[in-house]
Amino acid sequence: MVSKGFLEELYAEYNRRECALCDPVKFLYLYEDAREREVAGLIAALLAYGRLEQILRSVAGVLDRLEGSPRKFLLCQTPQELLSACRGFKHRVTSAKQLAGLLCAVKGVLEAHGSLQACFCGHDDPSAQTILPGLSGLAGELERRGGELDHLVAHPARGSACKRWNLYLRWMVRCDAVDPGGWREVSPARLIVPLDAHMWRVCRQLGLTRRKTCNLRAALEITDAFRRISPGDPVRYDFALMHASRDGRLDEMV
Question: HEC string of the chain?
Answer without folding.
Answer: CCCHHHHHHHHHHHCCHHHHCCCHHHHHHHCCCHHHHHHHHHHHHHCCCCCHHHHHHHHHHHHHHCCCCHHHHHHHCCHHHHHHHCCCCEECCEEHHHHHHHHHHHHHHHHHHCCHHHHHHHHCCCCCCCCHHHHHHHHHHHHHHHCCCCCCCCCHHHCCCCHHHHHHHHHHHCCCCCCCCCCCCCCHHHCCCCCCHHHHHHHHHCCCCCCCCCCHHHHHHHHHHHHHHCCCCCCCCHHHHHHHHHCCCCHHHC
